[in-house]
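Hi W., the zinc ion complex you wanted:
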Amino acid sequence: MIQPYQFNLIEEQIFQLVRTYQSVNDPQTIQTIEGMTKDVVVRQFNPQDDQALLIINEMFQRGLSIKKAEAHLSDLKTYVEPFPAPTIKQTEKLFRKVKKLKVPDFDDFDLQETTYLAWDDIGSQSKYLIATENEGYTAVHGHLSTEVKKGICPICQHESNVSMFLSLTKSSGDGTYTKRGNYICRDSQRCNQQLTDQAHLAEFLKLVKMKEN
Ligand SMILES: [Zn+2]
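Structure:
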């Protein structure tokens, strides 16, 4: 089984492969790129995921089109482990300082495309984020500015429509509150679809939470 962000990475790699097949003529160059792509893709699986690896192997053919790649990737999606959605009780506990927390129905989310769970509360202009950490969860929330601009999102590392996410965190020393602002993807669903490396998400959460405790 693979994680949603690993699936995104594979998809990105495969689409690059299609572009190589379509634009490169030199067989040596194609072979080199095929080798590098296969390395990255295969590394995402356990050796016992042999059925998934069969699907991968079928994609490494010169005639691969975007349409064919999409069909294979759709078969591969059955190997993606969905995000383990917390219960309402667990969610309330994660945001216990928030008054009148509105917990959405996580069944409405595509959890196979979710590396971190996020939703907006339009009324209070807030964004809530939940990620897995060790055997449990880690969560942050903050104010989301209505201003939208183009920028690189620190979570998915893609150029996106970003807005200022301002979390209120308590500084460790004197007990005063400091505001930490970061421009992140306004659309968290899109951010999740663009996320190919879990490390950036972990780094972002660490940064936001750094002074919280
Ligand atoms: Zn993003």
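Residues 4-79 form a domain with the Monooxygenase fold (CATH 1.20.1280.250).

W.
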